[in-house]
Design a protein that fits this description.
497 residues; Alkaline Phosphatase, subunit A; Arylsulfatase, C-terminal domain; 2 domains; ten-stranded mixed beta sheet; four-stranded antiparallel beta sheet; 16 strands; 13% strand; Sulfatase; arylsulfatase activity; Sulfatase_N; signal
């Protein structure tokens, strides 16, 4: 009787919270194709994102924040490995449902490192780093559980493939498409009820995960499918935003951000949790003038804004890779912190590993940095290494531009719009912009800054040579052969990005 009473009391007693800096929980929220200018805190006049604004006012805002690539797969490789996607060996910036390649098992991911430190690891949302298919012998190495995640609910690729986009969850008893998984819905592109349910469905699962894992450290990688085309919002949010369906979709994500926050607060672990918010690339402005599209509808109304930056998804202009970068950790990051120095999603892994006590992986180059001193210089003394950033905005992940300090040098330009804005750089005659004084990259300074041009040309050449020398975990691909459809070395067969 007494023993039962003590046991019952023990259940009622609140768990003793661990110190805030001891293996903090990490939640990474990564939107798909949202632009820099799509949020209240970046000045959008008709999209209301109060929950993100609250994270900004209570946490840290990086106005100069970059994602790892201007396309989905390559960017997701970067945030999960801390490495530039030119190191991936994918041979393409997007891996469709038929692509043979996937995240190589030798890569060390954010989830693997934190799992090694005892974290529970959950993923909720789009993966896009491999699909089991005939070209890779249906290997389960293509999917999240092979890369450090304990559980997953989400889609293997973007939701706009005619065939091969499936809503999948991990299930130890499941065997579709491979052992350990269960396909919940197949080919979801035309399945509007499922598409409208995704954002809330992922959040519900993430909240269940928070409640179940609150007494020990955890990682949540939360990757909504939106606002990638086709854009959807649930019935509760349709027609609620001044911006139309695109705004409804973003506001639904913002509202669910608030639900995640409430779950942390109700579980008493907000002070033990670092939340990071970013987008995987800029808005898909290739469709900004498309009045009617079979898959995407009136796409021109459903494209976000990269302003004040030029271009968007799929380009080496700043609009391809400038995204919101918000970090929230109450009690550790001081409210209202603004760090004007540049940072990127590649910094997430080295920073999270340092917080968890996990050594950095060896035998490979990491491009990201430990940026903890930006959070709070008293709690994390030290200096952050200087920022050098290579832009790999091409289908083959090759480098077209490099930034150091305020200067950005372009040797070739990628844009899905077909517009070069009047510029024609070459490796011999590159463009040079001061992207702090001229964020829209309008005024070429190359002629008046020959010394800077020479230094950045050398930096780019040396960086590319270093990548070439190190290689990737995948063998080199043969030269593209348009006839070799679906085989390694083939031109990517999937246009979806
Ligand atoms: Ca994307």
């Amino acid at each position: 009787m007494i023993r039962n009473l003590i046991a019952a009391l023990a259940l009622l007693a609140p768990a003793i919270a661990r110190p805030a800096l001891e293996k903090p929980n990490v939640i990474v929220v990564l939107l798909d194709d949202a632009g820099y200018g799509d949020f209240s805190h970046t000045g959008n006049p008709t999209i209301n994102t109060p929950n993100l604004s609250r994270m900004v006012s209570e946490g840290l805002n990086f106005p100069q924040f970059y994602c790892g690539s201007s396309a989905c797969t390559a960017s997701r490789y970067s945030i999960l490995t801390g490495r530039n996607p030119i190191r991936s060996g994918f041979g393409s910036w997007v891996l469709g449902p038929e692509s043979p390649r996937y995240m190589h098992p030798n890569e060390v991911t954010l989830a693997e490192g934190l799992k090694h430190q005892g974290y529970a690891t959950g993923m909720f949302g789009k993966w896009h780093l491999g699909t089991p298919n005939a070209a890779n012998q249906m290997t389960p190495d293509t999917l999240p559980l092979a890369h450090g995640f304990d559980q997953w609910l989400g889609t293997n690729v973007s939701h706009d493939y005619e065939h091969g986009t499936n809503l999948i969850r991990s299930n130890p008893q499941g065997n579709s498409p491979v052992q350990g998984y269960e396909i919940i819905e197949k080919d979801i592109l035309g399945n509007v009820p499922v598409l409208e349910s995704l954002t809330k469905r992922y959040t519900d699962a993430a909240i269940d995960f928070i409640k179940a894992k609150k007494d020990a450290p955890f990682l949540i990688y939360f990757t909504p499918n939106y606002p990638h085309l086709p854009v959807h919002a649930s019935k509760d949010f349709q027609g609620t935003s001044l911006r139309g369906l695109y705004g409804d979709c973003i506001e639904e994500i913002d509202s669910n951000l608030g639900r995640l926050r409430s779950a942390l607060e109700q579980s008493g672990i907000a002070q033990n949790t670092l939340v990071i918010f970013a987008s995987d690339n800029g808005p898909w402005i290739k469709y900004q003038d498309t009045a009617k599209d079979a898959k995407y509808g009136e796409a021109r109304m459903l494209i976000g804004s990269a302003l004040p930056f030029r271009d968007g998804k799929g380009s080496t202009w700043e609009g391809g890779q400038r995204v919101p970068g918000v970090f929230w950790w109450p009690g550790t990051i001081r409210p209202g912190t603004v760090v004007q120095a540049p940072a990127s999603t590649m910094d997430v892994l080295p920073t999270a590993f340092a917080l968890a006590g996990e050594p950095l992986p060896t035998g490979r180059t990491l491009d990201g940095r430990d940026i903890r001193p930006y959070f709070n210089a008293d709690k994390f003394p030290g200096t952050v290494p200087s920022f050098t950033f290579a832009f790999s905005g091409f289908g083959d992940n090759s480098i077209g531009a490099i930034r150091r300090g305020p200067w950005k040098l372009h040797t070739k330009i990628a844009s899905q719009t077909g517009n070069n804005y009047g510029f024609k750089p070459t490796p011999e005659k590159p463009l040079l912009f001061n992207v702090e004084q001229d964020p829209g990259e309008r005024i070429d300074r190359a002629a008046e800054q020959p010394q800077t041009v020479a230094e950045l040309k050398k930096l780019l050449t040396d960086y590319a040579a270093g990548v070439e020398k190190e290689g990737s975990f995948w063998p080199p691909l043969p030269k593209p052969d348009p006839k070799a459809k679906g085989k390694p070395g083939a031109k990517p067969v999937d246009e979806d990005e």
